[in-house]
Design goal:
The complex is a heterodimer.
Chain A (H helix, E strand, L loop, with lengths): L3 E7 L4 E6 L1 H6 L1 H10 L10 E4 L7 H15 L3 E4 L1 H6 L1 H21 L5 H14 L7 H13 L1 E4 L7 H13 L11 E5 L2 H15 L5 E3 L6 H9 L6 E4 L1 H6 L1 H9 L5 E5 L12 H9 L5 E5 L11 H8 L10 H9 L6 H8 L3 E2 L3 H7 L6 E2 L3 E3 L3 H20 L6 H18 L26 H9 L7 H15 L4 E4 L3 H13 L4 E4 L16 H9 L7 E4 L1 H4 L11 E4 L6 H9 L13 E7 L3 H20 L17 H19 L1
Parallel strand pairs in A: 1-4, 5-10, 5-11, 6-8, 6-9, 7-8, 9-10, 12-18, 13-18, 14-16, 14-17, 15-16, 17-18
Antiparallel strand pairs in A: 1-2, 2-3
Chain B lengths: L2 H14 L4 E7 L2 E11 L13 H10 L8 H13 L2 H14 L5 E3 L5 E3 L1 H14 L5 E6 L8 H13 L9 H13 L4 H8 L3 H21 L12 H16 L10 H16 L4 H8 L11 H21 L3 H7 L5 H53 L5 H4 L2 H26 L1
Parallel strand pairs in B: 3-5
Antiparallel strand pairs in B: 1-2, 2-5, 3-4
Helix pairs in contact in B: 4-5, 6-8, 7-9, 8-9, 10-11, 10-12, 11-13, 13-15
Classes of the chains: A alpha/beta, B alpha+beta.
């Protein structure tokens, strides 16, 4: 006979009262230790054990309850909740029930054990509710998983159509009878500003009508934001930045809590809340989780640096349910050791709650054509650029060889020199500018690290009379593509180069638009004449007034799609950051392309320069990263691929190439 | 002598005696040059809160009665404790006092309570008795306060003198924890305690935690206040406190997501091993936060070890005589002794079980570690190789270096062949 203990919540006194067969608990010393150490239980009475909770601390009651329940399970006790306690804990109990139900369901979908009839019905409903969009099978499955687990992650690679999948799930849930417990009527998307345009555009493509949207970031006034959140007549879709959530936390909670709002909350590019050390964005987003009716996490890179990055994502989809079942520091340890024996267990714990479509899947099942990697164009520098480049390269490389620890404050000095070298390789005119423009880190020095006045005057005179060779070559190829009826996106790293190139192309009669950090984002109140969204929309339309976009991967590598209109990407210059390089490539290589579309990548490298090293390092890193990303499991982008972390390997490669070249010249 | 008489006696003495000398005393935050008097020992009483004998006093008082140092009978008890606290050291000091007289001065309160110098005073009393010399004199500074007037200041003074840098070394380990607890009980902050005891704050906080853990251990056995039962177990509590903290703060290296109730289990198991006087490597094997060296860090191993433990030991525990039952059997016995016998009997019963479970788990742990050994060894080897500086003559000019390099090369070649071969099979 399992002993049974009655639990009563006394909201007034702020405690749980356990009665019934409590001698069983009290005589079990393990239980006694636990109750003394962690529950502050009062065990002095023979009739009742009281366990306090802190009334003023949100969730403390639920947390203590969960611990009591765990203890009962551990020591084989059956619990009886009093009626009044059931009322007090109703939300907690409901959530628990939902979790158990959905976990089973999610696991079944993952294991490919679907209810065929239900799935067929799901597809039927979508035909009606999502009239303009036909999803691929894999996307349907992903949507089905989201719909029925209701709280889940989609870790598909960029370009797999995560937005459509969310809309499909949303459309299904919206079509349910209003009194259905899964019924949803609002979509609340939290994402970077650059994601807002795609959410609006995709809505139209899915539903065939303009979205009823309120943007709560950018130029929208505070009053308007508050009005939207507190009005019963709010729009169907809300778009807000992570920053915005932090500054409107209370109003957002009221919004989610409103009786008439059944809200599905989506975190787009959700890795932005990975900070587990109390970051404001992460904290704010996690604090709204329990008020959401459905929760969806979207990111192609759920773990940019380590397993710990997944911690917040799972705490968001199921707050307090401890799906991960490992401590944060254990996740950190696992990130350090590839063969850690706990990893398979971790993946198994996580699996039922995420779906992942890989690039391989896109190619195999969704008609994505293989992209064409053109051999890089090697560009000769002109004479004065060569002189300047060689001079500073020699200087810096001597420095790198002497200063071979790339950590701490030292790394910033090394890093600054690397940037200078990249600038010199494309356009020495940039050397005149302070480095901050590129890299907004306070610690980094703005110096050039050269004190030879002869070379400095050469640098000062450059640019006034010269056009960098790369510009000429890039312009030639651009013109050719456009003459053949194509469109081009040109990627650059340095803002000044991007601006100069635009000007240079303009002189040649080639009109380009810029997508860089300063390009404004569209807001609802008052259109700026040209926003990222308007530029992308026009570029994607068949009768656009321009055919060239010049972009910086830091500003727009996420969220935007250009693949329908543009099949060519030219790289004017790159740095060692493989993650943003891969993301920039994905802008034109996405699901929705026709199998016979030709996607071309072109690279321009200055001869005998850091460009060559960057090119080969990126190839290596891309290869490694793709291998991981393409695995069916959640990809762990290993530490060393992180930009700054890998500084020392990049520098080593640079030195090796430099020495190799020097030897050849002799 | 009663309190009023002592106060009067000391006052008269101060009025009439020329000070023996002057000496510096730090009191109420200031260094003061105060007169030192030669005081007849009859005017003085021992301080039962003396940090040297706290555990014995507390254990005694818990069992029998509150000690009153004014009574001859209790004075004897305290003298006994003072002697027992460190017999060897006392023998040396005794010899020294006989040869050279009192070199280090003491401190007493206005009402004659010895704040600093209880041990010396008791030895002087002893000499007096042995040599039938009376009265014996004790050289000390007389403070202007009584203990009641200013308990905090006097406690501070006492601690500073008793437990300052050098002094505490010859204390029994357990005493410092009790002292911390007492000081905390009269509202001293850890920072203040640290200053008095010449330690840093984190050390004091650690001691307070260890004390709590020890109290917890005694309470669980029903031995609360009988601090003598902690004898020879201090080290294990220090370790256990460290382990538990690590697991609670999540810095341990366990391979599983243990819950708080698992930490409670761990504590319960460790208490049993402490009770049976396990220490050193064997004790550490249970809980040390290390990937390689402890059971708790390996979930499967721990589950088995834990279940075995509780299944076996709880049976023994249930059959054990309770303390009340033992008291009935021996109404006049010394409780401390009764409990010692109780612990010894229990240990005899569980010895085989504890040892068996420990050894079995240790073997499993060794096996697990061996599985991981190649990778670990190779990593270490690689690390060592990378340390070698190759641009030195000692490297490139030494023929032995080259032949060793070749040997290593052929060894790793063989490794590769084995790996290839095995993976083909």
């Amino acid at each position: 006979m399992t002993p049974s203990i009655k639990i009563n919540v006394d909201d007034e006194a702020g405690n749980f009262q356990l009665s019934g067969e409590i001698t069983f608990l009290k005589s079990n010393r393990r239980a006694r230790f636990f109750m003394n150490d962690y529950l502050n239980a009062d065990l002095s009475s023979n009739e009742m054990i009281t366990i306090p909770y802190i009334k003023d601390v949100e969730d403390d009651k639920e947390k203590v309850m969960a611990q009591i329940q765990d203890m009962f399970v551990k020591f084989g006790i059956s619990e009886v909740l009093t009626e009044s306690s059931k009322k007090i804990l109703s939300e907690f109990l409901e959530e628990k029930e939902r979790f158990e139900e959905f976990s089973i369901k999610a696991k079944k979908i993952w294991d490919n054990d679907l209810d065929r009839n239900e799935f067929a019905n799901f597809i039927e409903v979508l035909k009606k509710e999502l009239p303009n969009r036909t999803l691929y099978d894999l996307q349907l499955l992903a949507a089905y998983h989201l719909t029925f687990s209701q709280n889940a992650c989609n870790f598909s690679v960029p370009g797999a159509g995560k937005t459509s999948v969310v809309y499909a799930a949303y459309a299904y849930l919206r079509s349910l009878p209003k009194d259905h417990k899964k019924y949803i009527n609002r979509l609340f998307v939290i994402g970077p500003l650059s994601s807002f345009g795609p959410w609006k555009d995709e809505y139209k493509e899915c539903f065939g009508e303009e979205a009823n949207v309120q943007v709560l970031s950018g130029g929208v006034s505070r009053e308007e934001r508050v009005r939207h959140l507190l009005s019963p007549y709010s729009t169907e879709i809300t778009l807000i930045s992570y920053q915005g959530v932090a500054s409107h936390l209370e109003d957002i909670i009221s919004y989610l809590h409103r009786h008439e709002n059944k809200v599905m909350v989506v975190l787009d590019e959700a890795h932005k809340i990975k900070n587990t050390e109390g970051g404001l964005w992460a904290q704010s987003v996690l604090s709204i989780a329990k008020y959401c009716k459905a929760r969806i996490v979207l990111t192609g890179t759920p773990m940019p640096n380590g397993y710990e990055d997944i911690y917040n994502l799972y705490n968001f989809i199921w707050p307090g349910k401890d799906i991960i079942n490992f401590h944060l520091y254990q996740l950190k340890e696992m990130s350090q050791a590839i063969f850690d024996k706990r990893i398979p267990q971790l993946i198994e714990n996580l699996s039922p709650f995420f779906i992942r479509i890989t690039k391989k899947d896109l190619k195999k099942h969704m008609g994505l054509p293989e992209a064409i990697e053109n051999e890089p164009f090697i560009v000769e520098m002109n004479e004065s650029q060569r002189y300047i480049y060689d001079y500073i390269e020699k200087n810096y490389l001597d420095y790198f060889q002497v200063n071979d620890t790339y950590q701490g404050p030292q790394s910033n000095l090394v890093y600054a020199r690397l940037i200078r070298l990249m600038q010199a390789a494309t356009n020495p005119a940039l050397l005149r500018k302070p480095i901050e423009e590129y890299y907004h880190e306070k610690e980094i020095s703005s110096e050039l690290f050269i004190d030879d006045s002869g070379i400095i005057s050469k640098i000062l005179n450059y640019g006034a009379k010269e056009v960098p060779s790369k510009f000429e070559h890039v312009a030639r190829l651009t013109k050719k593509i456009i003459d053949e009826g194509g469109k081009v996106i040109i990627w650059g790293i340095f803002i000044q180069n991007i601006r100069d190139l635009k000007e240079y192309l303009f002189k040649l009669g080639l009109d380009a638009r810029l997508l860089i950090g300063e390009t404004p984002v569209e807001t609802d109140s008052g259109y700026e004449e040209e926003t990222r969204e308007s530029i992308i929309r026009e570029f994607n339309s068949s009768n656009s007034s321009f055919n060239i976009i010049i972009a910086n991967p830091f500003a727009v590598a996420e969220s935007i799609s250009l693949h329908k209109a543009c099949h060519n990407a030219i790289y004017l210059e790159r740095n060692f950051n493989a993650a943003s390089f891969i993301q920039s490539k994905d802008r034109i290589h996405r699901v929705g392309l026709k199998p016979d579309d030709k996607i071309n990548y072109y690279y321009f490298l200055s001869k005998n320069s850091i460009d060559g090293t960057i090119h080969s390092r990126l190839k290596e890193k891309e290869q490694r990263m793709l291998e991981i990303i393409e695995s069916r499991e959640i990809p762990l982008i290993d530490m060393n691929m992180d930009y700054k972390e890998d500084l020392s390997n990049d520098i080593k490669a640079l030195i090796r190439d430099y020495v190799g070249r020097a030897a050849e010249n002799k | 002598m009663e309190r009023t008489q002592r106060i009067k006696g000391l006052e008269t003495l101060k009025a009439n005696q020329t000070p023996y000398k002057h000496d510096d005393v730090i009191y109420r935050g200031e260094k003061k040059l105060l007169p030192v008097y030669e005081i007849p020992l009859d005017y003085l009483i021992y301080n039962k809160h003396n940090g040297r004998i706290l555990s014995m006093v507390k254990s005694f008082e818990r069992q029998f009665r509150s000690l009153n140092p004014e009574l001859a009978e209790d004075k004897k008890v305290i003298e006994h404790f003072l002697w027992e606290s460190k017999p060897d050291r006392n023998k040396t000091t005794l010899y020294d006092l006989k040869e050279y007289g009192q070199k280090k001065i003491g401190i007493v309160t206005k009402d004659g309570i010895i704040i600093d110098g209880n041990r010396r005073a008791s030895l002087l009393n002893r000499i007096g008795r042995e040599e039938n010399a009376s009265p014996m004199y004790f050289k000390a500074v007389i403070l202007d306060d009584t203990l009641e007037d200013n308990p905090k200041e006097i406690m501070r003074l006492e601690t500073t003198y008793q437990m300052g840098e050098d002094e505490k070394l010859d204390y029994n380990p357990i005493e410092k924890y009790l002292k911390c607890k007492d000081l905390k009980a009269i509202d001293f902050q850890p920072g203040e305690i640290a200053k008095m005891m010449g330690e840093n704050v984190s050390r004091i906080s650690e001691w307070l935690n260890i004390m709590e853990l020890m109290d917890n251990y005694l309470d669980e056995l029903g031995y609360n206040g009988i601090y003598t039962r902690l004898d020879k177990r201090e080290g294990q509590f220090v370790d256990l406190n460290k382990y538990l903290n690590k697991y609670e703060n999540g810095t341990g290296l366990a391979d599983w997501a243990y819950k708080k109730s698992d930490i409670s289990d761990l504590k319960a198991v460790c208490f049993d091993y402490i009770r049976a006087n396990y220490e050193g490597k064997e004790f550490r094997a249970i809980a040390l936060p290390s990937k390689k060296e402890s059971f708790f860090c390996k979930q499967k191993l721990w589950d088995k070890f834990r279940d075995n433990h509780f299944n076996n030991i709880d049976l023994v525990n249930n059959e054990e005589y309770t303390i009340d039952e033992l008291r009935v059997k021996e109404p006049d016995g010394d409780l401390s002794e009764i409990l010692k016998v109780r612990d010894d009997d229990w240990t005899n019963k569980v010895k085989g079980l504890l040892k068996g479970n420990l050894n079995k788990s240790q073997r499993v742990l060794d096996d697990i570690n061996e599985e991981n050994a190649p990778l670990e060894l190779l990593k270490r080897a690689k690390g060592t190789l990378e340390l070698i500086k190759t641009d030195m003559e000692a490297f490139y000019a030494d023929k032995d270096v080259l032949s060793l390099v070749k040997e290593i090369n052929s060894l790793t070649w063989d490794f590769q062949q084995i790996i290839k071969q095995k993976n083909k099979e």
